[in-house]
């Protein structure tokens, strides 16, 4: 610290000498504020948008306590209201606000700047990030503002809600445009601004194509689905099926904010509050799945999961220290967080094949998906052979392999209802008689945009945790 002060003192003295001997030479350059640049590069916001999106969709106060909890990957031993279907309403409000205000709005601005600069590569990245944010919102809430979102500058302060089907149509339009931009060969992405791929446009093309493929599989039980279009995406050769192409953000072995957000649990000494869910532990033990030793820490040589719920877990024998905690690898400061994993996409390809949506051998895709998950968890390819019996085993592995990818686990479970035997939490919130399938609308929206919220509720059903989203027909 002393050296820093000395350096700044020397700079100040030197600057004073220059000023007194060369009064107004280079005056404009000397007085340029580096914190307020007059020229903004079109991808200057990219890293901020990427980091904001990944941190929010992996926020442990909502994605961890709700999405990963309700699918019973994890379970809490204390402060476990969400375990019993009382999610943090403030966190739900933040999820909505951050995705609209700090991801979508900034990505729209980045897209505008890129269009002005004729940088199609950056336009493509901006559209992918917008599409992903809208998909997270509609998958978790249902009907949402899209066509009138973030248009206060046009006098629209109370945006109308689009139906989930229309939102998905908009998502596909964005992704088609993103793919076209990224295929054009025009423009570039500054490597230092891109936390996902370091400016590699070919990988962004795979990312865009894969996000569209996954989104199409999500609505594959609806009239909007087009199997021929799905096959075209497969034929493009641009799907993420290798661990080398996965979309994730790496973190650093230092404190927040540059560390994995779950590392905050370690910094605050709260590991004992977070444990493994009994259904996942029991299933992996029965299958002899080696990933369990990565997912979880043992308790005196045994892996023990907690059933969901309980008003007072400690009095039921499930207090801190009695069950397996989340594995150290997943709470490490430098643990990566995923947007898209090769494992999930290979397993979705297996599903698409077994349902005759696409060509290809379902069993091969299935085995590739399990292998990709093993590699992702630092295990050797082929070190585990999951039983393959068709669709049910594919859906089961989608549940297992998306560990700590809360919203993807929740979405895949809602879509398949597999595992079908996930039990209701003990001591649930009164009136919640099944595992939640959506978030209720934020209090701010109910207060400030009531008429449009009411219209959305009239269209899709009660503003309740158990109202199903449009594509969830099981």
From TrEMBL:
<protein>
    <submittedName>
        <fullName>SusD/RagB family nutrient-binding outer membrane lipoprotein</fullName>
    </submittedName>
</protein>
<dbReference type="InterPro" id="IPR011990">
    <property type="entry name" value="TPR-like_helical_dom_sf"/>
</dbReference>
<keyword id="KW-0732">Signal</keyword>
<dbReference type="InterPro" id="IPR041662">
    <property type="entry name" value="SusD-like_2"/>
</dbReference>
<feature type="signal peptide">
    <location>
        <begin position="1"/>
        <end position="24"/>
    </location>
</feature>
<dbReference type="Pfam" id="PF12771">
    <property type="entry name" value="SusD-like_2"/>
</dbReference>
<keyword id="KW-0449">Lipoprotein</keyword>
């Amino acid at each position: 610290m002393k050296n820093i002060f000395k350096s700044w003192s020397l700079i100040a003295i030197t600057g004073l000498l220059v000023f007194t001997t060369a009064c107004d030479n280079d005056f404009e350059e000397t007085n340029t504020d580096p914190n307020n640049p007059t020229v903004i590069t079109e991808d200057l916001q990219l890293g901020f948008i990427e980091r904001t999106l990944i941190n929010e969709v992996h926020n442990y106060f909502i994605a961890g306590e709700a999405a990963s909890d309700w699918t019973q990957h994890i379970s809490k031993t204390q402060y476990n209201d969400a375990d019993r279907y009382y999610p943090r309403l403030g966190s739900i409000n933040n999820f909505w606000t951050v995705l609209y205000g700090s991801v979508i709005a900034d990505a729209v601005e980045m897209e505008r700047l890129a269009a002005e600069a004729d940088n199609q590569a950056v336009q493509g990245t901006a559209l992918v990030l917008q599409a992903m944010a809208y998909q997270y919102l509609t998958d978790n809430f249902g009907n949402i503002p899209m066509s009138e979102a973030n248009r206060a500058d046009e006098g629209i302060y109370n945006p109308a809600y689009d139906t989930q089907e229309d939102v998905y149509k908009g998502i596909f339009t964005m992704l088609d445009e993103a793919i076209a931009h990224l295929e054009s060969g025009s423009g570039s992405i500054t490597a230092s601004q891109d936390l996902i791929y370091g400016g590699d446009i070919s990988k962004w093309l795979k990312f865009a194509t894969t996000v569209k493929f996954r989104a199409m599989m999500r609505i594959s039980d609806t009239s909007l689905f087009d199997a021929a279009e799905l096959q075209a995406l497969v034929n493009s050769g641009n799907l993420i099926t290798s661990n080398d192409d996965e979309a994730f953000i790496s973190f650093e072995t230092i404190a927040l904010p540059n560390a994995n957000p779950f590392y905050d649990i370690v910094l605050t000494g709260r590991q004992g509050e977070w444990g493994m869910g009994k259904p996942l532990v029991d299933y992996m033990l029965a299958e002899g799945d080696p990933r369990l030793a990565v997912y979880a820490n043992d308790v005196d040589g045994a892996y023990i999961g907690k059933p969901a719920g309980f008003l007072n877990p400690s009095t039921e024998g499930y207090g801190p220290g009695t069950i397996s905690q989340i594995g150290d690898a997943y709470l490490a400061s430098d643990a990566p967080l995923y947007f898209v994993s090769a494992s999930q996409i290979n397993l979705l390809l297996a599903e698409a094949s077994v349902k005759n949506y696409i060509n290809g051998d379902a069993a091969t895709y299935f085995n590739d998906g399990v292998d990709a998950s093993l590699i992702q968890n630092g295990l050797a390819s082929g070190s585990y052979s999951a039983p393959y019996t068709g669709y049910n085993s594919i859906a089961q592995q989608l549940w297992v392999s998306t560990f700590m990818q809360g919203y993807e686990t929740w979405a895949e479970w809602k879509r398949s209802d597999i595992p079908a035997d996930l039990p209701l939490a003990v001591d649930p919130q009164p009136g919640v008689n099944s595992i939640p399938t959506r978030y209720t609308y934020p209090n701010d929206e109910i207060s400030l945009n009531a008429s449009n919220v009411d219209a959305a509720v009239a269209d899709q059903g009660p503003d309740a945790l158990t109202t199903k989203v449009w594509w969830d027909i099981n």
